[in-house]
Every structure is written in structure tokens, then in C-alpha cells.
Amino acid sequence: MRNKLNIPFERVDWINTGFLFVISLLAIVAAPLYLWHHGIDWFQISMFFFYAIATGMSITLGYHRLFSHLSFKAKWPVKLFTLVFGACAFENSALHWVSDHRKHHKHTDHDGDPYDISKGFFWAHIGWILFKVNPEPPLDNVNDLRKDGLVMWQYRWDKAVAVGVGLILPAVLGYLWNGSSGAWAASCSPACCASSASSSARSSSTRSATPSATSPTPPAAAPATAS
Ligand SMILES: [Zn+2]
């Protein structure tokens, strides 16, 4: 089914699209409104910078360098931290992220690259997250990570971790700090981080809810070596 805008609505991933719309609306509209009416204090500033740095580092250092490219080895506390706060960036599980990213390097800018830039700026940065691909490509290039108990734990629970640590925990801390208005403000800080992180698909292989990809024929398992 096509329309005047040539958008295949039957393929739209409404969960991803709806989530990104709501979280962006919170970041763009609700957070400034809160600041206008209630101001800001060191607690909210600290929460914002902690979550911005923790989620950003967990994707770049953890999902990307550590798990996708095996650039270095890390002890379990580093793995656990990057898996927990990587989930809080709402970029899906490490297993899905790594699978997409290895496909991206193996087929850079060609068919098989989930965020192929030759399909356009919009597709490479955000469009590929908003549409489903049938059938769902298998995760057959991450067998090395399937042997890691922490990675598999996060694969099973990443949505619960994302909501629990990324939204509910800061709301509880904000409530303890300044009642219900503090809870609202504190949960906005990570929401702002998640919104910006989830919009940077090209560089960080974003996928925020149900997985989708453009390649019907995923490559064999082989970690890429380039960045
Ligand atoms: Zn890379």
C-alpha cells in the first residue's frame, strides 16, 4: 500500500515510531515547560550529566568497542555497567546492536548494511528504525557473545532494565529529593538522553524497540575490525 508520500505504512514499526515520538516530545516540550515553571537545581543537572555520560559511554565504549569490535577485554563490572546503561539508552539489547553493527561493517553502504547511507540521509539516521523487515533476520553473527552470560542476561531483560533503571529509578530518586515535581524532573533527564541517543542511528546503530533490519540475508559471524 503506497500513498501520495510514497510511505509504505504497512511496514511501519509503530512501537519504535510511537516511542521515539513520545520521548522526543518529552525532551522538546515537557522538559522546557518544567524548567520554565519550576527552575532547576544541582540534583537535576547532576542527573542529566550522569545519564548522558553513562548511556553515551555505554554505547560507544561498551556496545561498540567492547562487544562489537572486541577491541579490548573487560572485567565483569565494566561489562555490567555498559550493559545496564546501554539498555537505558533505549538502543535495544547489546546482542541486536552488535549484530546490526557487524552487518554494517561487513556490507558498508551496500545491501545488507542495516543503515545503508546510499538509501539517503533520512534512512541512514532514523528511517531504518521506523520500518519492519520481513522475515526478521536471524542473529547469526554474534555466536561469540552468546557464550557471555551477562550479555545473554541483558538480551532477555533489556526492556525491563531500560524502563527500571532508565526511567523509574531516576523518578524514585527525584521523588526522594523533591516530591512529585522532583520525580517528574528527574525522569525527564534520562528521557532527554534517550531521545538524543535514539536519533543517532548512523553512528551508533540505534534500535529502540522491536528489531528490524534491511538485510534479508545476514552475513556469517565475523567481528569487524574497523570502527
Ligand atoms: Zn564500528
Query: What is the subunit arrangement here?
Result: single chain
Give the SSE order as H and E letters. HHHHHHH
The number of helical elements comes to 7
Summarize model confidence as the mean pLDDT: 82
Largest sheet, described in full? Answer: none
Stretches where pLDDT is under 50 for at least 5 consecutive residues are 199-227
Structural class of the helices, strands and pairings? mainly alpha
**Backbone shape:** globular
Compounds present? Answer: zinc ion
Annotation, overall tally of beta strands = 0
β-strand amount: under 5%
End-to-end separation: 38 Å
State the helical fraction.
Answer: 55-70%
What does this structure look like?
- The chain is an all-alpha fold.
- It has one domain (9-204).
- Helices cover 62% and strands 0% of the residues.
- It has seven helices and no strands.
- It has helices at 14-38, 42-68, 76-88, 94-106, 121-130, 149-197, 201-204.
- α2 packs across α4 and α2 crosses α6.
- The termini are far apart.
- The relative contact order is 0.21.
- Zinc ion (ZN) is lined by residues 64, 68-69, 101, 105, 227.
In short, what is this structure?
By secondary structure, this protein is an all-alpha fold.
Features:
single chain; 227 residues; mainly alpha; 62% helix; binds zinc ion
Give the secondary structure arrangement, pairings included.
Layout lengths: L13 H25 L3 H27 L7 H13 L5 H13 L14 H10 L18 H49 L3 H4 L23
Helix pairs in contact: 1-6, 2-3, 2-4, 2-6, 3-6
The site of zinc ion has 6 residues, from helix 2 and helix 4.
